[in-house]
Write a structure and sequence with these properties.
The complex is a heterodimer of chains A (474) and B (269).
Chain A: E1 4-13, E2 21-28, E3 33-37, H1 44-51, E4 60-68, E5 80-83, H2 96-106, H3 111-124, H4 140-152, E6 158-162, H5 170-183, E7 189-193, H6 197-200, E8 206-210, E9 216-220, H7 222-235, E10 257-266, E11 270-278, E12 281-286, H8 293-300, E13 308-313, H9 315-318, H10 331-337, E14 338-341, H11 354-364, H12 369-382, H13 398-410, E15 416-420, H14 428-443, E16 447-451, H15 455-461, E17 464-467
Parallel strand pairs in A: 3-7, 3-8, 5-6, 6-7, 12-16, 12-17, 14-15, 15-16
Antiparallel strand pairs in A: 1-2, 1-4, 8-9, 10-11, 10-13
Helix pairs in contact in A: 2-3, 2-4, 3-4, 4-5, 11-12, 11-13
Chain B: H1 22-37, H2 43-55, H3 63-87, E1 95-99, E2 102-105, H4 106-132, H5 135-145, H6 150-179, H7 188-219, H8 238-260
Antiparallel strand pairs in B: 1-2
Helix pairs in contact in B: 1-4, 1-8, 2-4, 2-8, 3-4, 5-6, 6-7
The chains are: A alpha/beta (474), B mainly alpha (269).
Chain lengths: 474, 269
């Protein structure tokens, strides 16, 4: 049970010109553990949605065949469980136990069997609390383990995991991977989509790579696939294990101070913190979830009013305005000096095309239309966005949206850049581009502050680190 | 984040009336409030408020908690009094006080007070129900005892969970706009434009999140046509029926007092 058969399968979402996935031929046997790879846009998520029976017939056009145990996936939904990326939008109920029970109720499991099965599922994923624990009080890693329990309680023959750890910090990601490793029954078929290949390999025995234009470009054991196709896959953006990225240390010593925080805090989100940001320097802010890293980024970016202490700009950064703290500057003045890049790129988009998005900053800060056009053209080329100038920012892929969000901050040429988790969920290609870009900016005299969990990113770029600890009681 | 989400019950769960079936509490509150709408005199709502405050301990709600929850209600009642005293067209009765063009008469004061008391008396039962009822229990009871469709009740419950995210999202969107160089300064028109564009972005984000949640619910077999079973039982007992009957009797008492005192003024006369 839980065998998957694809023959020339393709799917095109209604209203789209391009096929999301096409020409897929694949057979997965009962109990196999498969890692599904492919560059962003190759159709991994669409394929999982098709297998989960979540593509209604009227929502697009299908070609070829997709079957689970010889059935149309829409008719085999009881055999399939799926866990998505975002913990926030897959928990339904307010209490943890109720959430696991939700699926069992929907499937009509008799009432007296529900709670024993809930408890069993919670135990299998190592859920550390009782059934009554509010789902809102769980960390991201705990929420994902709960989502996994909710899927497993239904005893699926085929389990689909769509980047289940992409939104989590390293500690949370380890918790979820451990839960997957221990909770799966030997006879459950697994298909896992995951960017971070090295971490996912212990969970799988087969790797399948989707080609961006359609079809399957590699299939076999992890060793065989990476030996033969490692080079091509890495170039396409897959995190092939054992291929480290060259570090980019600073070429010059740190320059003038740009921004200083003294006793800067915002109770209860951030305990008082001291730090100085300099030109020609990349500073990484580390620390566990809940230590207030994102809050610190917003405070340094002049976007939040400090609750304690303060932020002061140097004259190098702000000229005569150095006497006033950044959170009181007018927005156009702020954006010329400090550029903020948010964790979720979509929060930042204000206009309806990529071109206007990049032009917004220069226009707001009083550049002429000719100047604006040349700034935008230069950035479009530099960040490989030129073919997307007319596209709506909300339709971009994860990597493209991230590049655009960084580019919008660069458009007003601020001397200081503050980035919150810029490498979250990025493929290898975008990741390397970001490191190269930020290293070049630093060597050109900019100051870079990055809030991050990504140890590889810190090793590749950071000249200095500051670690916040979780000292504030929440 | 240990802070309770807004709207979570704040009452002592062991209080005799807090434990009653959520549908019974909702029905009692609705019947009690509806009866009061029948009259526009100040006496009936005043008696009703006295009754409401008297039964409050039976629901396990402390007076301080109620005051904290109900302050917007008190503020709006005060607003009604001020507005009516200043702008009422009909100024009957004796003049008590004249401030500039405003003559405060007994008639105006009685009307204003009556309306303000009515707003409080009608709304308090609702405040009490939601202060003593867990949303999950309410959804369960609506499905099991009031035959509401699970599609509606569970769907609303899931959407309710996403609500607190909206205020965080609004803050992020506003800060992101400032980071992009967009602010209004002292220009009210620009402020309105930014407000509209932020609200639109919030809406787009909410729809995307709602769609993702719906897909996740779908994947777990929600609304797939299989008859649902129930993990949590809600029972409608004789005590619940008694609560509803008691509410009707007390509302009738408030009206009777008003009729006996001769102050009763039916809404439709």
């Amino acid at each position: 049970m839980g065998a998957v058969e694809l023959r020339g399968f393709g799917w095109r979402h209604a209203g789209r010109k391009a096929w999301a996935v096409r020409g897929a031929d694949l057979r997965i046997e009962h109990g196999e553990r498969v890692l599904l790879l492919g560059p962003s846009g190759a159709g991994k998520s669409t394929l999982l949605a098709a297998l989960a029976g979540l593509l209604p017939e009227d929502s697009g056009e299908q070609e070829g065949l997709v079957e689970i145990d010889g059935l149309d996936p829409r008719k085999a939904r009881e055999r399939v469980g799926i866990v998505f990326q975002d913990p926030e939008t897959q928990l339904v109920m307010a209490r943890s136990g109720d959430d696991v029970a939700f699926g069992l109720e929907n499937r009509g499991v008799p009432a007296d069997e529900i709670w024993p099965r809930v408890d069993e599922a919670l135990r299998r994923v190592g859920f550390p609390y009782g059934r009554d624990r509010p789902t809102a009080a769980l960390s991201g890693g705990e929420q994902q383990r709960l989502a996994l329990a909710g899927a497993l309680a239904l005893r699926p023959d085929l389990l689909l995991l769509d980047e289940p750890t992409a939104n989590l910090d390293p500690v949370g990601a380890i918790l979820v991977r451990e839960a997957i490793a221990t909770a799966l029954r030997p006879d459950t078929t697994l298909i896992l989509v995951e960017h971070r290949v090295a971490e996912a390999l212990p969970l799988v025995d087969r790797v399948v790579v989707l080609a961006p234009g359609g079809g399957i470009s590699a299939d076999g054991t992890p060793d065989a696939v990476f030996d033969r196709h490692g080079e091509t896959l890495a170039a396409a953006g897959v995190w092939v294990p054992g291929r480290p990225v060259t570090p980019r240390p600073a070429r010059t010593a740190p320059g003038d101070p740009l921004l200083a925080a003294e006793g800067l805090g915002l109770p209860p989100r951030l305990a008082p913190t001291d730090l100085t940001v300099r030109a020609n320097e990349a500073l990484a802010v580390l620390g566990p979830n809940g230590a207030g890293k994102s809050t610190l980024a917003l405070l340094l970016g002049g976007l939040l009013k400090p609750g304690a202490g303060g932020v002061s700009a140097s004259t190098t950064l702000a000229g005569r305005d150095a006497a006033t703290p950044p959170h009181r500057w007018r927005a156009p003045a702020l954006t010329r000096r400090i550029g903020s890049v948010f964790q979720d790129p979509e929060h930042q988009f204000v206009t309806s095309t990529v071109f206007d998005e990049l032009a917004l900053g220069p226009r707001r800060t009083g550049r002429s239309e000719t100047e604006t056009r040349s700034i935008v053209d230069e950035l479009l080329g530099r960040l490989r966005l030129d073919r997307l100038a007319g596209a709506n920012p909300y339709t971009l892929s994860g990597g493209e949206a991230r590049r655009l969000s960084v580019a919008t901050a660069l458009a007003t040429a601020p001397r200081l850049l503050v980035l919150d988790e810029p490498t979250f969920g990025q493929d290898r290609r975008t990741w390397i581009e970001l490191v190269e870009l930020l290293a070049a900016l630093r060597d050109a005299g900019h100051g870079i502050v990055t809030v991050t969990h990504d140890a590889d990113f810190v090793a590749a770029l950071a000249d200095r680190t500051v670690t916040l600890d979780r000292s504030v009681t929440r | 984040m240990t802070e309770l989400p807004r709207g979570a019950p704040v009452a002592d769960n062991n209080a005799p009336l807090a434990r009653r079936n959520p549908v019974a509490k909702l029905a009692a509150a609705l019947l009690f409030s509806l009866t009061l709408i029948a009259t526009i005199d100040p006496v009936a709502p005043a008696v009703a408020i006295a009754i409401e405050l008297a039964v409050l301990p039976l629901f396990g709600v402390r007076y301080r908690t109620l005051a904290r929850r109900a302050w917007p209600l008190l503020a709006s009642a005060l607003g009604i009094v001020v507005t009516l005293v200043l702008f009422a067209a009909e100024r009957t009765g004796t003049v008590l006080l004249t401030v500039g063009p405003v003559a405060v008469t007994t008639g105006v004061l009685a009307d204003a007070l009556g309306l303000a008391l009515r707003v409080i008396a009608v709304a308090l039962p609702g405040v009490m129900v939601f202060a003593t009822t867990d949303p999950t229990d309410l959804a369960d009871a609506l499905i099991q005892n009031a035959k509401a469709s699970p599609r509606f009740a569970i769907g609303a419950l899931a959407a309710f969970r996403l609500l607190p995210l909206l205020s965080v999202e609004w803050q992020m969107l506003s800060m992101a706009r400032r980071a992009r160089g967009v602010d209004a300064g002292r220009n009210p028109l620009a402020r309105l434009r930014i407000f509209a564009s932020t609200a639109f972005a919030l809406l787009v984000g909410a729809i995307r999140r709602g769609t993702r949640l719906a897909t996740a619910m779908d994947a777990r077999g929600f609304d797939a046509g299989t008859p649902r079973t129930l993990a949590r039982q809600q029972r409608f007992t004789a005590a619940d029926a008694a609560l509803v009957a008691g509410a009707v009797a007390l509302a009738a008492l408030a009206l009777t007092v008003s009729i006996v005192l001769g102050t009763f003024r039916p809404l439709i006369s």
